[in-house]
User: Fold this.
Amino acid sequence: MKKDFKKRLLSINRGMVRFQVSMSEYTTFRVGGPVEALCRVQDITALRKLCAFLHIEGIPFLIVGRGSNLLVSDQGFEGVAIILDGELARVNEYPDEGLDIACSVVVAGGGAPISDLISFCRLKGLGGLEFLSGIPGTVGGALYMNAGAFGEEIGSRVQGIRILVGPENRIVEFKKSDLSFSYRRLGIEKGAVIVGASFVLTGKDKDVIGLRIAEYLKKRKKTQPTGYASAGSVFKNPPGMYAAKLVQEAGLKGKRIGGAMISEKHANFIVNTGGAVASDIISLIDLCKNRVKEMAGIDLETEIQIVS
Assistant:
């Protein structure tokens, strides 16, 4: 990255930039090579300026969130990684006269951690998102993947979203009726950035919400690997099937390559047992795909985003 480019980037983003940053610091897998620059953006104005500059310069960028559901190659990413922070990571409650008296609207920035959203809802006595408890990502990432668990999906609770789109960096607002949510997917323009969303939630007793959160966390701890770095479910479930069952039936549960292992607790998780590199994880992903294809004739599709 040229020196003049670094100066301009520092100027545009108020100095909140780091250069040649290892993505192992910013992904839940704890692996990944360097990114040329990493920017923490505090508000919409700064985000629009930064994205406009990157579009003009033809430099690719990546919204990192909290680094869950993300695998960056050992070679790294030749571009800019962006973390939505400040105003873009806040959670607030707003009245909506058009709603039933028992409902409220919660507005969250795209960079808000799911854990912050859940804690805010519990504090305010607003139920409906407890099933997301334990998911380590951000609101933007959860919406982009239509994150779900225990038979529920985040898309079902959305009232609307705000997105930054196109080289002109327009802020576009979409109502729920304009959005297309499907299994682990939200149909939005490629390269668009989810900067915020609103959710319609129902008033509930705080203690009841707390008990539900504890119940979901207990279920996750019982069925999913803990104590190791991972990125959650690696593969999407094929229609009418479970990816974990297919991987297990292919005899790959507990399989290791380097420091990476297919979890012995849940076969749709790959964990970093210590010292893994991205290529170890990618090799396990390829092995799963090949074995399941040979065994069942099914093409597994990754749920995690692989960046090179």
The mean pLDDT is 93. The CA atoms of residues 131 and 149 lie 6 Å apart.
